[in-house]
Amino acid sequence: MFSPTSIPRKSHVRAAAKLRQARKDGSSYQGNREEAKNADLPYVTSLAKVVVGSETENSVMRMRVSTSSALGIMTASLPPSSSKIIVESLLTHLSSMSGVHRQVACLVVISWFKELRKIANDSDFSAAFENAKAIRIKLLELLACCDPALPTPSSHLPYTELTRTYAKMRGEIASFLKAAENAGISCKEVLLRGQLPETISAEAAVDIAMKVSADVTAAQSSDDSNKGGFEFLESLRQRFLATAGYLRLLQSNLHASVLATVAGAVVRMGELPVKLNPIIQPLMGAIKREQEELLQQLAAEALAETIAQCVGRKPSPNEKLTKNICILTLSDPGETPLATEANAKLINFDELITTKFSNSSQKSQGVSTAEERSRMEGAITRRGAEFVLRSLCDRFGTLLFEKLPRLWDCLTEALTLSSANGSEVKGSSCFTPAVEQHGEPQSLINNLQVVCSITPVLDEGLQPKILMLLPAIFGCVRHGHAAVRLSAAKCITALTKRWKEPIMAAVLENASLMLNDSSSVEARQGASLLLMLLVDRLGGELVAYAPLLIVPLLGCMSDTESDVRLSATHSFAILVPLLPLAKGMGPPSGLNSVLLSRSAEDAKFLEQLLDNSQVEDYKLPIEVKTSLRRYQQEGINWLAFLKRFKLHGILCDDMGLGKTLQASAIVASDIAEQIEKNKSGSELKLLPSLIICPSTLVGHWVFEIEKFLQTSILSPLQYIGSPQDRLQLQPQLKKHNLIVTSYDILRKDIEFLSKIVWNFCILDEGHIIRNSKSKITVAVKQLKAEHRLILSGTPIQNNVLELWSLFDFLMPGFLGTERQFQATFGKPILAAREAKCSAKEAEAGALAMEALHKQVMPFLLRRTKDEVLADLPPKILQDRYCDLSPLQLKLYEKFSVSQVKVEVSALVQECGTSHDAEGSISKSSTHVFQALQYLRKLCSHPLLVLNEIQLSESEMFQSETGGDEKINLHDLHHSPKLLALKEILEECNIGTHSAGEELNETGQHRVLIFAQLKSFLDIIEKDLFQTHMRSVAYLRLDGSVEPDKRFEIVKAFNSDPTIDVLLLTTHVGGLGLNLTTADTVIFVEHDWNPMRDLQAMDRAHRLGQKRVVNVHRLIMRGTLEEKVMSLQRFKISVANAVVNAENASLDKMDTTQLLDLFTMSGSGKSNIKQASRENEDDLLASAAGATGGKGLKAMLNGLEELWDQSQYSEEYNLDQFVARLGG
Q: Where do the record's region annotations for Disordered lie (predicted)?
């Protein structure tokens, strides 16, 4: 107990402490770690947490305190006559030169008299005090020794713990003086001033080092010949300076720690001296700087006892002490922010979410040593002040503020001023006053921090008094300064941890009011911040309150302020998993009748949130000019449910089930409800709604709205046209409550449209924003709207990771940042898809899929035609395989043996093995996509890859008869797809009659022909219809048609049964259109993205179709197209596993299958030249084998985005590519 411990001799801690002290003194320590081996360490630590003793220093201190306490308790139980032996032993140790001995003796005295006050009567206590009077006298003598270098009365010796360190320092000084004399510097008499090196103090050593520095520098500059000697001399000076500074610091800390325990012993003995400074100063020093928590706690108890003994004293130091203690609670910059201009508006939410304010003294990365030390010192001081407050609360109990009125003033002075003009909130026992005009922000922060510090330790009986502060604290939650709001939120969080039921009742009532205060941004910011801190700090303790907290948060997730959205969505995401635990618990206790009623409503709402089937039927306040099917009513129910609670979601019904009608109905209903409320006396501002869709569908939306809804309620405006036209339309927007525009127009006019606050913002075909970095997506996310809705029959086009961008529009932050989403869901799911994944990776992927599914499921509604349309005729899918024509086969084989093929294979291999993946992909993409585009066009028609000039110069294009006659590329037999198309049309009885022959419309088929390339439609029109099938009546819809005229073509086709065929590109005509007058769909080309083809074929197979729909897909056997169709089937299976009611897992497509895209396989005529194809397979296998297919997989990562023909034409021009094939 009395023996000091020493640190392991090879520890680096002493050298580190020397280095820090040397830096503090403005010098640099040049020694190394080995030079500190022989130095002893004193008992007390330094400010930089240089521990003394073994690695179990904390355990040693606990042992000392525990054994001293046990000895003191035993002494208290002894009769006064027997305690004399203890007194003599204690006097011996108090007279020792060892600081540890004195400290332990004081700890025994503290425990002795503390226990004696509990068990002894006044006479026994007085007798014990008389026996220990000699101890008290000795203690007061020790307190009079203020100089750390002279800790003992009538002695010049230091503490014995420092003897060896003193010896080391003095030896270093002697070595320096000797070396100085050898160098010709005579400074011994001047520096020592009669002192011997053997008796010099640490303070004097530091002075010597500083004074001799100039002499060494001057001698070095005057004598360049002995440069090495002077450098050695300077190193000796640096060495003893570091040792002296280190010793001075440790000596000061040891003395302060010993004096604090001495003062504590004097206080516990019960009779304070006339002058209190010798008692109070060491105790306050320990409160501020003592790093050993047990000793700091003992000092805090002693200071609290001092204050208690001074309650009736005059003059009393209590008012000043109380104020200083409250000031010390503000020392930690991590807990008490400064009210600066820099943090007046902004709060670092990432730091709040990461630290949760639970470890403010934790070291921060990237901060300077001085800043780190300042934070550490502030945290130690705050801890000491809070120990004093705890001791005061234990000492005075419910009389705390009566005995220490200054403490109550420290809690209330700024808060009382700020809430003087507050107004009562009806139905609540709390107030929410506005504080923007009252009190300095820093004063408010300081008051709030004191309340936060004292709340956890207050007596239960003081709860009513503290609750009186709640109105003012809630007022600070809506303060104009962000730092004040933060402090108020932390204060209420601390109060909630202490008294959960009454505080949470006040939070539920006041926070919901502030969250709904659209007139005050600060109120919403403060309330959302408060709930975020409550959720982070209390976690599972809020299970019973989770339903009541979730509902107010819902509306905030679409707030116009990003920080409100972020904090609300963060809280919401944490609370959702708690809902199953809250089910069946009933409302928490402590709620008034209003909150109990709200609790029942919220519980009912949450049942609907978790189970769509529980949503009640919504009675439309408007007339719909059609009979709604049951599934459509349920869809409107779900949309009304989202609207009511300001939620946002994705309506991903199958194509053709009436998403347009359901969305239009909910917008019109909301307008009708607001108009009705305004008639009843409300003053609601009627906001316009915005519908964004592909340009082809702008007219379709307006047509559908005018067809099914009352134009007196919903007044749509098409915001399209040239820039000049749109500029003229902008003033007219105020006259309409529904604006319909396209994604392209939105991107161009986002500066204007983003200034408007919209009621509904509906994205039709919302999967268009799946790429978070596209310009359209960035523009869409700048819009401000009360309600957000995405319509998409295929929300997952290629992989589930596209969900992040969609939800980032709906509820920013709900799925975290994109990087967090990738780390939490993307990487585990991707790793689980690898063929060689481990069992652990597979399990992690499955858990990530399940977690993502559960998180997004409440916000998705999906119905398929098979489930809800029993009366819808079937859709029959027929694949018609065609063999390559001889010309196509020659061109295909020429590619297989070309230098281009070899280069592509090499690029694939390079992309898979290169460390610079992005650079490799960027360099390789153009060549790879040129090759893909070449083969894709070749499968459709040779004319798409060759021109007439190239043909005339090539012998391979002579007629198959071997003559000199040139072939005509416009002949149908060069493109088997045209022959197959002609055959299908004739089967449909199209083109078989003469131009003047009347048709029997009974049983007449009407056809939609989809192609990827506008140029292929040109060939169909010219080479087939105008040459061989002139009687076919057709219309055409592709990118060359102006957007505002496209719907007119659709209406013309639907209204005129004499039109046989509608030619369309998948990109323009494949989205959203209603073409149920057609019953046959023919795909002459196919999209990489299967969802686009599905969307296109469902233009005919949708609600309103009365006939069986036949879908014909023309596929070239053994070519790129056949493999694309295989890839399509794979992607469809992935999407079907994700977005449906039975979804149990999420998955990500594996594009490794694309490795054989360039190879030919199959049977029939394509078996000709099999050797060439085998050679091609070998080339690609060698390119992909080493990397497992990762190279091409990486390059094809963005394949699904390249569906626009203009992109291919501009970026992947084939002219030079084809020329290289001939080389």
A: 1-35
